[in-house]
């Protein structure tokens, strides 16, 4: 777009945006002899220091007594499309523009030389003295391939010392490993699947949108197991043929081992992977490959939106309804919405996929703003699971137990048939609350208004909001009664105990984000589940989505009411989505599946809609209730969180803010009231909610208000959350 150098006579000025929490670009004088253009990365003085910034616009006046730009850094300039995106995100979210820039700005290259990783290769004869360990190591290195030392040690189950001794003996030679291939070229025709009729016509529409090479949004709505991935891969293949790049956004990139395997099976190579665990040199190299256009496909977490693509030809937002797309800290943006913005800026098509689209997306599709493609059937004639409710008022497990007789029987049948069962409970840890039976003392987080969750694996009480950890004591800290502490309610760990006593012969596993051993182990266990190594899986929402477990034929939902009782207007939508996702884990393989949902409220509209198997019923009811309440997408919504180190400070600022709110027609200001987590990480939080009709420009309204309002003093902070996901 604007690649023209700015013609700058001596004494001209530029406005430089600095990637810190500042909203405005600062003006600097351009020294003689320096030619700058928009997007150039420059060094400028800021207070007593030097800092890096980006030339954002031509300055208004003459240099006068402004400070001067120190110099231009030897870095690629920020792309005009990215500059536009930064401007847009900052405008929409009200985040300081500098904070948004920080998401997009590449760090200056690290110029310490990269140390090569070392590998070993079998080059010589075995040593005279052989041991079983040495034999295994040599056998594993057979064929003379260069292999990383750690990988060889693992493959042969030997220690690194065994390998070192074979290096000393001359059997192995040490050589540098080649760098990981970051931008191997995917082959669009590597292994094309045969698509069903429905899949083919959806794929054809997506391919046409890539060929048209213009902006447009398509919702690809398909039931779980309908083959959405196979279908949008065709659009990716077309972008590769057109020599343009694709971005595939995923909600939880760390757990996408299955996705990567499928991508590799389809295109012959792995995609470029972008997420927070990709660091250092690898990150830099991937960024460079994206900027040069060499990396054709990037699969990434939401931050991949801010990468410098050279020729972006397609954006896919996988599982577009996922809450993980909303960034809550710092710049609070929704990656799905910003993906649509980036698509418009780049003039590229955007595909949103989901089995349970968000209401916003659904309505955009119904109103014709998005193209709506549907895959109503599972691939290969597989049936959706049959769903049933268990009325817990009648079939009540005894005290301290959570699995009803009906569900126990169903699990038993599955065990006998050697089929897998999934028990879903969206609660990490052992018990959500611990209390003293004698005095009623409850364990609360010292930093948050939240109960501490009992984690038996870790032998600790943990706050799920701030991470505070303390040992679980043996006696009550308040009344010192021994043996009086009681766990209240179930978490997945406690459910696992019940499974172990009721089905002692079953191989069971608990899968949640607390899994000991971290993401790598978790990935392996997910694979093991897919391969049928466990009979009963007990899991949180971590196992609800995306995974394909072919042997899973029963899903038991322990508490279908969890989430429905909160006052949050999105509670119904979220519960509907998670229950549809998790029950969709059943029956994806050869055998049909079924799901049983335990509830105290079998008449609840969300559960009735779910059981009816007709999502339209849910969407129609939910659309009507949002419309009646003027909630998004029928109205606009923002939350203002006012926090401070003390309650009076946050409350008085919240009141001051509320006092200077103007309420013209179409604007409603609610509060101030305590925020849902009234204390979080030691900060006292109040909240104001702004609701407007659609014809009000919410951003302009908020800006004008905050400008009028007294500036926060002392420890007070005001955070704006446009389109809050929960309130
Ligand atoms: P979704 O994302 O809609 O839940 P997937 O794309 O994961 O569905 O597909 C479900 C399963 O069906 C996967 O194992 C996939 O490989 C398989 N599948 C879907 N379509 C085809 C096809 N046309 N040919 C072969 N296998 C397919
Ligand atoms: Zn806490």
Automatic annotation (TrEMBL):
SUPFAM superfamilies in the cross-refs: P-loop containing nucleoside triphosphate hydrolases (SSF52540)
EC top class, as a word: isomerase
Domain Helicase ATP-binding: 209-375
Molecular function as annotated in GO: 3'-5' DNA helicase activity; ATP binding; ATP hydrolysis activity; DNA binding; zinc ion binding
Domain of life: Bacteria
One GO BP: DNA recombination
SMART domains: DEXDc, HELICc
Residues reported to bind Zn(2+) 2: 445, 448, 463, 466
Keywords, in A-Z order: ATP-binding, DNA replication, DNA-binding, Helicase, Hydrolase, Isomerase, Metal-binding, Nucleotide-binding, Primosome, Zinc
Catalytic activity: Couples ATP hydrolysis with the unwinding of duplex DNA by translocating in the 3'-5' direction; ATP + H2O = ADP + phosphate + H(+)
Record text on cofactor binding: Binds 2 zinc ions per subunit.
Membrane-crossing residue ranges in chain numbering: none
Any one cellular-component term (Gene Ontology): primosome complex
Positions with a binding annotation for Zn(2+) 1: 436, 439, 476, 479
EC code(s) of this entry: 5.6.2.4
InterPro entries hit by this protein: DEAD/DEAH_box_helicase_dom (IPR011545), Helicase_ATP-bd (IPR014001), Helicase_C-like (IPR001650), P-loop_NTPase (IPR027417), PriA (IPR005259), PriA_3primeBD (IPR041222), PriA_3primeBD_sf (IPR042115), PriA_C (IPR041236)
Co-factor(s): Zn(2+)
HAMAP family linked: PriA
Oligomer status and interactors: Component of the replication restart primosome.
Known role: Initiates the restart of stalled replication forks, which reloads the replicative helicase on sites other than the origin of replication. Recognizes and binds to abandoned replication forks and remodels them to uncover a helicase loading site. Promotes assembly of the primosome at these replication forks.
Family statement drawn from the similarity comment of this UniProt entry: Belongs to the helicase family. PriA subfamily.
Name of the protein in question: Replication restart protein PriA
Organism for this UniProt entry: Bosea lathyri
Gene that encodes it: priA
């Amino acid at each position: 777009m604007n690649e023209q150098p700015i013609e700058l006579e001596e004494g001209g000025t530029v406005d430089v945006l600095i990637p810190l929490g500042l909203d405005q670009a600062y003006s600097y004088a351009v020294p003689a002899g320096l030619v700058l253009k928009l997007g150039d990365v420059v060094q400028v003085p800021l207070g007593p220091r030097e800092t890096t910034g980006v030339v954002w616009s031509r300055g208004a006046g003459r240099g006068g007594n402004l400070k001067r730009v120190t110099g231009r850094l030897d870095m690629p300039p920020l792309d005009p499309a990215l500059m536009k995106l930064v401007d847009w995100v900052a405008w929409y979210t009200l985040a300081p523009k500098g904070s948004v820039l920080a998401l997009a700005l590449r760090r200056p290259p690290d110029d310490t030389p990269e140390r090569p990783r070392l590998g070993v290769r079998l080059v010589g004869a075995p040593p005279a003295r052989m041991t079983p360990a040495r034999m295994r190591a040599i056998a594993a290195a057979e064929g003379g391939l260069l292999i990383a030392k750690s990988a060889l040690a693992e493959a042969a189950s030997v220690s690194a010392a065994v390998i070192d001794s074979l290096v000393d003996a001359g059997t192995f030679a040490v050589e540098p490993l080649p760098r990981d291939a970051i931008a191997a070229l995917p082959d669009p025709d590597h292994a094309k699947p045969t698509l069903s009729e429905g899949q083919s016509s959806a794929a054809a529409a997506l391919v046409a949108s890539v060929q048209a090479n213009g902006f447009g949004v398509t919702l690809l709505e398909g039931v779980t197991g309908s083959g959405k991935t196979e279908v949008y891969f065709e659009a990716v293949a077309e972008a590769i043929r057109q020599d343009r790049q694709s971005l595939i956004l995923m909600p939880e990139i760390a757990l996408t081992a299955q996705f990567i395997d499928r991508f590799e099976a389809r295109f012959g190579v792995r995609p470029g992977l972008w997420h927070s665990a990709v660091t250092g040199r690898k990150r830099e190299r991937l960024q460079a490959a994206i900027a040069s256009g060499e990396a054709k496909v990037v699969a990434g977490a939401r931050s991949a939106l801010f990468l410098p693509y050279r020729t972006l030809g397609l954006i896919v937002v996988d599982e577009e309804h996922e809450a993980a797309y909303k960034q809550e800290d710092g710049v609070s943006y929704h990656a799905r919405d910003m993906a649509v913005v980036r698509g418009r800026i780049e003039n590229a098509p955007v595909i949103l996929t989901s089995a349970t689209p968000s209401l916003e997306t659904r309505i955009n599709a119904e109103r014709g703003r998005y193209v709506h493609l549907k895959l109503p059937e599972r691939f290969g004639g597989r049936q959706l699971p049959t769903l049933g409710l268990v009325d817990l008022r009648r079939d009540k497990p005894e005290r301290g137990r959570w699995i009803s007789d009906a569900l126990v029987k169903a699990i038993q049948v599955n065990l006998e048939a050697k089929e897998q069962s999934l028990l879903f409970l969206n609660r990490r840890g052992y018990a959500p609350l611990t209390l003293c039976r004698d005095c009623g003392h409850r364990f609360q987080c010292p930093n948050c208004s939240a109960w501490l969750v009992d984690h038996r694996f870790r032998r600790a009480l943990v706050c799920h909001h701030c991470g505070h950890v303390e040992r679980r004591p043996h006696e009550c800290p308040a009344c010192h009664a021994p043996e009086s502490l009681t766990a209240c309610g179930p978490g997945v760990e406690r459910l696992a105990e019940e499974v172990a006593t009721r089905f002692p012969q079953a191989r069971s596993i608990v899968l949640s984000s607390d899994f000991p051993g971290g993401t790598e182990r978790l990935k392996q266990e997910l694979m093991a589940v897919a391969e049928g190594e466990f009979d009963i899986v007990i899991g949180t929402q971590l196992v609800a989505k995306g995974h394909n477990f072919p042997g899973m034929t029963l899903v038991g939902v322990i508490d279908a009411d969890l989430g429905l009782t909160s006052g949050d207007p999105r509670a119904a939508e979220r519960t509907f989505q998670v229950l549809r996702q998790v029950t969709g884990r059943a029956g994806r393989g050869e055998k049909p599946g079924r799901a049983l949902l335990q509830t105290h409220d079998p008449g609840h509209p969300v559960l009735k809609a779910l059981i009816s198997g007709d999502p339209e019923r849910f969407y129609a009811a939910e659309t009507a209730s949002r419309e009646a309440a003027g909630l998004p997408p029928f109205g606009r919504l923002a939350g203002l969180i006012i926090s401070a180190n003390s309650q009076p400070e946050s409350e008085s600022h919240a009141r001051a803010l509320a006092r200077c709110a103007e309420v013209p027609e179409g604007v409603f200001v609610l509060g101030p009231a305590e925020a849902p987590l009234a204390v979080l990480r030691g900060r006292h939080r109040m909240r104001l909610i702004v609701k407007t009709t659609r014809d009000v420009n919410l951003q302009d309204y908020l800006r004008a208000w905050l400008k009028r309002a007294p500036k926060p003093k002392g420890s007070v902070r005001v955070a704006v959350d446009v389109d809050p996901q929960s309130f």
